[in-house]
Design brief:
Layout lengths: L36 H32 L4 H19 L2 H4 L2 H24 L6 H22 L2 H17 L7 H22 L2 H22 L5 H21 L7 H9 L2 H12 L7 H21 L4 H20 L8 H23 L8 H4 L3 H5 L1 H9 L7 H21 L2 H22 L5 H24 L9 H10 L2 H4 L9 H20 L4 H21 L6 H25 L4 H4 L10 H4 L1 H6 L1 H4 L3 H21 L2 H10 L1
Helix pairs in contact: 1-2, 1-4, 1-6, 2-4, 4-5, 4-6, 5-6, 5-7, 6-7, 6-8, 7-8, 7-9, 8-10, 9-10, 9-11, 9-12, 11-12, 11-13, 12-13, 12-14, 14-18, 17-19, 18-19, 18-20, 19-20, 19-21, 20-21, 20-23, 21-23, 21-24, 23-24, 23-25, 25-30, 30-31
């Protein structure tokens, strides 16, 4: 055999690629610039102190001159003008501009001196009419704005702010001049706010808000009384309008957060002022002014939250409305507010129910996603005012005005719930309406107002049953499921008020009408598979209400109507349960037989006391006729339902 050739040797591995040269190390970071303490202490600090000292000296001179009668008022005004204008003119020289910090401090002191002089000339010395003083201070404000922007100096603005806000306090004589004071502060707010937005100095806006709020608080605590209530409301509305107006008019639609928050916080003082008014009984008769201003504040907060945010402003307004209604009803309500308070309640409820429609219509870019969504629940919660008014206002004994407005609010809540699928808003409003009905029944129901009671009970019962039915027909069922059955069942409790000792002799017709309406509604709801257990309980409580009426009313005087009601209601129960059995025969309850069918037997029990009392049993044909009709109906129902127990029970009782 030939020898095998030797195996080929493996190829050598390819050479490794050349490594790149190492990168040079990064250059060392430049050391941070050290804080220039020498510039701060040696230049800026002493310049700032000098500016403040000049301001204090000018104001002290004016105040001291007033107290000690130095010179005449015109001379004092002339000195103040010369000092202020001299400082401003000196700061414009070339030599002064070489020392920028000192120049800014002196310019700010000049601005503050002019503010002090014009304010004192009008408020203290009465040398200038209010209009002229206002115009001159507006001119000074414009000069301060121009200097702050041209010099790009926040210090001029801050010292001008300090001097401007210190002037009324330092020159105060203890007298009240609200128009001059708050007109002057409004000018300061406008000027400083413009500078803050133009130069992006949010600290200026925050300080302006804080100092203005302090002046408002001090004025309220010292000078506010009933005669100045209108001025106070105007003052507390003016400054939020200035802050929110500046936010709306700013060109930058995405203003810095601090600006937006500061403008939003400007709405807090009027809310607190309204709360204080609500808690003070002295202001109770001015409810129209109070709630009118409160509506403007709430509507303004809602508009700002909707168009610019933040949405918690809307929730703040809603909380303020609820708090003020509660405190006013608890501390300050008087009959002078009737019936106007009903209109205000409906107006506020409409505000919070209509705003989501406006939001959907305008397709705003900032839809409510958090706290703003909760504000709509203010509308049903406001219906608690109707319950309070029942106990506070004697005129609610005539219920049509009270419950007419309550029905209007309930209808608005129903429309909102169906449109937006917010069943909790509707259900909560309905519960408060039911609470108002109960309170009115406890407080005012008597034999003289049974017809209004029928209109109120019947009208609300139809709404309670009709709204869920309408929502289901539109394919937008409301939560909670079976709310109509729940409300109808709770309404059965109102029947016991009609069976009381003072009302029962006159209430049989009203009781019969409501028995039929409520139980037909319960049977219909159960037939749709909604809360059938409540139907059983409702039928049982309805029979108990009849028993209560039978025990309290003089039956011997109205035996025939009473027997007719018992017969009609028993037939309703029998027919209704047959209907339920056929509609729900697939359910466990229907398959085993409807136990509520046996309630038809309770109609026969009403005949036992009639048969046992010779005054009622003679002549016997009325109760025997009822017995015959019920027996025939029981037989038909037993055959249709194939329930021998029903026929047996009928035979035993008969």
């Amino acid at each position: 055999p030939l020898p095998l050739p030797p195996a080929a040797s493996p190829l050598p591995p390819p050479p490794a690629p050349p490594q790149p040269p190492p990168l040079p190390p990064p250059p060392p970071a430049e050391p941070g610039k050290p804080f220039d303490w020498e510039s701060l202490v040696g230049v800026k600090l002493f310049s700032y102190v000098a500016g403040v000292a000049l301001l204090v000296a000018a104001v002290a001179f004016l105040k001291y001159g007033v107290e000690h009668g130095w010179l005449g008022a015109p001379v004092r005004m002339a000195i103040g003008l010369l000092v202020g204008l001299g400082l401003l003119a000196g700061c414009e020289t070339r030599r002064a501009r070489a020392y920028a910090v000192t120049d800014q401090a002196l310019a700010a002191a000049g601005i503050a001196t002019l503010f002090s002089t014009f304010y004192a000339a009008s408020a203290l010395w009465h040398l200038l009419p209010a209009a002229a003083s206002f115009a001159l201070m507006a001119l000074v404000t414009a000069v301060a704005v121009g200097l702050s922007i041209r010099r790009d100096s926040v210090f001029i603005a801050l010292l001008g702010l300090l001097g401007g806000f210190a002037t009324p306090l330092l020159l105060s004589t203890g007298e009240d001049h609200p128009i001059g004071l708050f007109g002057y502060l409004a000018l300061l707010n406008v000027g400083l706010g413009w500078v803050a937005y133009r130069k992006r100095w949010p600290l200026l806006t925050a300080l302006t808000l804080a100092f203005t709020a302090l002046y408002q608080l001090g004025w309220v605590m010292r000078f506010l009384d009933e005669s100045k209530l209108g001025i106070g409301l105007g003052v507390f509305l003016l400054f939020p309008l200035l802050g929110l107006g500046a936010l709306f008019l700013s060109r930058d639609r995405e203003a810095p957060a601090l600006f937006r928050h500061t403008a939003s916080l400007s709405a807090v003082p009027p809310v607190l002022f309204a709360v204080r008014m609500a808690m003070n009984p002295v202001y109770g008769q001015h409810f129209g002014l109070r709630f009118g201003v409160l509506f403007l504040v709430a509507a303004g907060l809602a508009a700002v939250a909707l168009l610019r945010g933040p949405e918690w402003l809307h929730a703040l307004g809603a909380a303020a409305v609820l708090l003020i209604f509660a405190t006013w009803l608890g501390f300050s309500y008087t009959s002078d507010a009737w019936p106007g308070i009903l209109g205000f309640t409906a107006l506020f409820a409409a505000l919070y129910l209509v705003l989501p429609w406006v939001q959907a219509r305008l397709k705003v870019k900032r839809p409510f996603l958090g706290a703003g969504l909760l504000a709509v629940h203010t509308a049903p919660l406001l219906m608690g005012a109707f319950t309070a008014l029942v106990f506070l206002e004697p005129a609610t004994a005539a219920p049509l005005a009270l419950f007419g407005v309550a029905l209007l609010v309930l209808a608005m809540a129903a429309a909102f719930a169906i449109r937006f699928g917010e069943g909790t808003v509707w259900f909560l409003a309905a519960l408060f309406a039911l609470a108002a009905e109960t309170a009115w029944s406890v407080r005012h129901l008597d034999a003289g107002n049974l017809l209004p009671a029928l209109l109120v009970y019947g009208g609300f019962s139809l709404v309670f049953l009709g709204v869920p039915f309408l929502a289901a027909r539109r394919g937008r069922p409301l939560e909670p499921e079976g709310s109509g059955a729940i409300l109808a069942f709770l309404s059965v409790g109102l029947l016991f008020f009609l069976a009381g000792p003072g009302v029962a002799p006159h209430s049989l017709g009203v009781l019969a009408a409501l028995l039929g309406l409520l139980n037909l509604g319960l049977l219909f709801e159960a037939g749709q598979g909604r809360r059938p257990v409540l139907c059983v309980l409702g039928l049982a409580f309805s029979f108990l209400a009849l028993v209560a009426w039978w025990a309290c009313a003089p039956v011997n005087g109205q035996l025939l109507p009473a027997l007719a009601v018992v017969l009609a209601f028993s037939l309703l129960v029998l027919g209704g349960t047959v209907f339920l059995r056929e509609r729900l025969e697939a359910s466990p309850l229907g398959a085993k037989g409807s136990p509520e069918t046996l309630m038809g037997l309770t109609g026969l029990l009403f005949l036992l006391p009639v048969a046992g009392d010779h005054r009622l049993a003679e002549p016997p044909w009325p109760f025997l006729a009822v017995l015959a009709v019920l027996g025939l109906a029981m037989g038909v129902a037993a055959l249709r339902l194939r329930r021998g127990a029903l026929l047996t029970g009928c035979a035993v009782i008969t």
